[in-house]
Amino acid sequence: MGSNNRYPVPAQIRFVLLWFQEWSEMQRGDFLPILAQKLSPSGCVNGVVAGMEGLSCQADRPPSLFQCRVKLFGDWVTGWSQADKDHFLARLKELDPQFIEKYEAGFHLLVSGQAKADDIPGEVVESQNIAQSPVPNQEFAADEYLGEVV
C-alpha cells in the first residue's frame, strides 16, 4: 500500500500541521522552499528544490525525523486536490501568519518567473509561539488524526 493511501487526506493534513508546530524556526525555514515547490503550479518550478537536496541523507547516517516528515509531506501532497492544498495553507496561516506571508512573497516571485525555488529565503521571521497548542483550546490525541476534518 502506498503512502498516499495509508491515511485519508484530512489525516495527512493534520499530521503535517502538527509537525509544523513542532518544528524550530530553522526547520520551518528549510520547509519554506519545499512548500513553494510542491504547491506551485506545474511548469513553474523545474527540478528539485535546493533545500530538498540539502535534506538528503548522508550514507553513514539514517535520515532525521524532520527529513522523514518532509519526505512524507512531499509524497502526500501530490495526491491532494487544490481544495486540500488551499485548506492546508489556510490552516498554516492560522498557525503562523508570518510564515505564510513569506511563502506568498516567494511564491509570487516563482510564478512571475522572477526567482527560482532555491532563491526563496529559508529563514522564517520569528512567529508567535504556537508550539504549545496545535489549535487554540484544542488538544490532539493520536486517534483524532484519523477522525473528522480539521
UniProtKB/TrEMBL annotation:
Pfam families, per the entry: DUF4508
PANTHER family documented for this protein: CHROMOSOME 14 OPEN READING FRAME 119-LIKE-RELATED (PTHR16260:SF3), SIMILAR TO 1700123O20RIK PROTEIN (PTHR16260)
Protein name in UniProt: Uncharacterized protein
Native species: Ladona fulva
